[in-house]
Each structure stands twice: as C-alpha cells, then as structure tokens.
Write a structure and sequence with these properties.
- This protein is mostly helical and 261 residues long.
- The protein is built from eleven helices and no strands.
- It has a single domain, classed as Fido-like domain (Fic-like fold), CATH 1.10.3290.10.
- The longest helix has 22 residues.
- The chain is globular and about 55 Å long.
- The termini are far apart.
C-alpha cells in the first residue's frame, strides 16, 4: 500500500537511486515508489497494444520518408512558424525569406539530429545510453546553450548535481533493460527524460528523438505529435511536472501513435 505519493522538488537535483524489475503488462497495480525511484515518474494502466507492430525495415523506411514532417511537427511544437512547404524548401538547401534566423537554425538543427538518428538506427548503432542522448542533444540544442550535449552541471556551469543526474540516467537504463515491451520502454524514456530535464536546453526534442530510436529499432513507427495537439501535450506535461504522474502523457502518446496507424 502506498502511504504517500512521491514528489520531486522543482529542481530535480534532489534524487535517490533505484529498485527492481516489474512486469511490463501494466494491467496490475504496481508500486509507485519503485517506479519513481527507477525513473522519476509513476504511471498506472497503459494500453501499449494500440501501438501496432510492423518490422524494423519498414518502420525505418517510413521514418526516412517522413523526415520533413517529423522535423516540421517538432519545430512547430517549439513555437516555430515555418510551414511544411518552407521546411521542405529549407531542407532542400534553399533559404526561406522573411523568417527569423533563430527559427531557421532550429529547423536545420532538428533536421541534422533526425539525420543522425536515421544513420544510428540504419547502421544498428542506436543505443539507449548517455552517449547517444548526448550526441543528439549536442546537435539539436547547439544554438541554444553552450552546454549542449552535456548534462546540467557537466558543462560551463559546474554543479554538484551532475552525479545525481548521471545516477538517475543509469537507474532509468536498468529499468528499461528489465522492461520487455519496447513500446513501454519508449514511453517511459520520454516521460522520465522530460520530467528530469537532463540538459540545459532541448530536453523534449532530445527525448522525442530517443523515443523514436527505441521504437523504430524495434519495428514500431515513430510517434508523431501533431502541432495541432500542442495544448493536449502541454496539459499532460504540466500534470507530469506537478505530480510526477506520467499516465496522461503516456496515454496521449499512445493515442498519437494509434491515430497515425
């Protein structure tokens, strides 16, 4: 019996360590304390069956074919004003007029990060590890922070909390290694990384990239979060940050995946 719902401080440098495996069906009641110790978030019943399997090669081909759309949606979720045709034009190497330079850099950084992910998966080099996450964040946030690609506290602003973030990432890795369902792995990773904020910038985009890598490496299509559903995403993220409850956000991501099927 849970006596008190666990909470994190607003600055998640105050954290402890890990616990054991749990069943991946999540139809049963699980220990929230265990979930939070392992991942920083907790969740209840999750219906991952709505995320239909394909095969790795097909998922990878569709991912490659849909890269402009993925970049566009990711940029729009950050408030970027580029349209899809403009994104296609920019990715073709043609400058788009009357757009802020910062927005152009953001689109190009996202394109490069998705390209790096495409190559990692294509060559079988994608791993759920800090090195991969750091590489993707280094690309996607390079115009936003001098510490891109380094956990908070590892870069120019050295802080003691960096070891706690490294420990937290390690416990997350262990939890995912004990989770058989790659769909649930991807959902847990996204929610944990979005809640923890490992980096000084680009956390949500990096979490989406890592979630995408987990899914397509295991024969599931990337989850596309349409910019038209931004308010739903923001509400689910607010619930996550204020309560550590990832259930709403996981259900939202599953619905986005099912809507694309």
């Amino acid at each position: 019996m849970v006596t008190k719902q666990p909470r994190w401080a607003p600055d998640p440098e105050t954290y402890a360590a890990r616990k054991s495996a749990t069943d991946d069906s999540y139809r049963e009641v699980v220990d929230r304390d265990d979930q939070v110790r392992d991942t920083g978030v907790w969740w209840t019943e999750i219906d991952t069956a709505r995320m239909l399997p394909s095969d790795t090669e097909s998922a990878w081909r569709r991912f490659r074919a849909n890269l402009p759309e993925l970049v566009w949606h990711a940029a729009r979720l950050e408030g970027n004003s580029f349209t899809l045709p403009e994104v296609r034009t920019l990715l073709a190497g043609v400058t788009v007029g009357d757009r802020p330079a910062g927005e152009e850099r953001q689109v190009l950084a996202l394109s490069e990060a998705y390209g790096a992910l495409r190559d990692l998966v294509g060559y079988g080099r994608f791993h759920i590890d800090k090195s991969t996450s750091d590489r993707l964040n280094r690309i996607v946030a390079r115009h936003e922070t001098p510490d891109a690609g380094r956990f908070r506290g590892e870069g120019t602003l050295r802080r003691d909390g960096r070891e706690l973030l490294r420990t937290r990432f390690a416990t997350l890795q262990e939890r995912l290694a004990e989770t058989d369902d790659p769909r649930l792995q991807a959902l847990i990773y996204f929610c944990s990384a979005a809640r923890t904020r490992f980096y000084a910038g680009g956390n949500k985009r990096t979490a989406v990239l890592m979630m995408t890598g987990i899914l397509i490496s295991n024969g599931f299509d990337a989850v596309v979060i349409p910019h038209s559903r931004r308010l739903e995403l923001d509400h689910a993220l607010d619930t996550l940050v204020t309560t550590d409850d990832a259930t709403e956000l996981m259900a939202f991501l599953i619905d986005c995946a099912a809507s694309e099927s």
